[in-house]
Amino acid sequence: MADTHLAGRRSDRARAAVKLMLAWVALLWLLEAVDVATGHALDAYGVVSREPGELIDVVPSAFVHFGFGHVAANSVPLLIFGFLAALGGIRRFLAVSLLIILIDGVGVWLFSPANVNTAGASGLVFGLFGYLVARGFVERRLRDAVVGLLVGAVWGSSILAGISPANTGVSWQGHLFGLLAGVAAAFVFRASRPPRTR
């Protein structure tokens, strides 16, 4: 009976995670469609470094993109990393995502070149990557550690390329701060382990 109940809970979490991430990515595409239809009016919600009034755009900037190609590049990794992270619970996932978005946005605001408008979900993508890789080791859970190793093995090289200052076509600062924020989130939101029974 206990095994059946546990399997049911895992199935419910998986369904919730799928629905959340499909809705999240659909929202990104909808916003980009609105952006194109309005002559790229939503691009103003990106973050321009060291302009005090731009701090209000830290959260919106994670949902705005510069073209459909930009959204497409972020959609698949966001779906995969988001789904894997959300399996640990939707509320926890949302808290992790918010922390990543805030740290990443402030890092971009502080350290990006002057007069550069930065937007997109890639900071969150890099953050979720860092969270997934670190989570299993922080919580000492074998299953999560294996997931982290697999994620690192498959996407590690592209993540490293994305944080290189030589990669001038993207905001490597946003990628770097997203990655660091994700690792920090693994510590901040680590799940408490049930006490051992004798």
Keywords:
single chain, 198 residues, mainly alpha, Rhomboid-like fold, 6 helices
Task: Write a brief structural summary.
The protein has helices spanning 2-37, 68-86, 90-111, 122-139, 142-162, 172-188; strands at residues 47-48, 117-118.
Walkthrough of the structure:
- The protein is mainly alpha-helical and 198 residues long.
- It has one domain: Rhomboid-like fold (Up-down Bundle), CATH 1.20.1540.
- The protein has 6 helices and 2 strands; from the N terminus they run αβααβααα.
- Helix 2 (68-86) packs parallel to helix 4, helix 3 (90-111) packs across helix 4 (122-139) and helix 4 packs antiparallel against helix 5.
- It starts with a helix and ends in a 10-residue tail after the last helix.
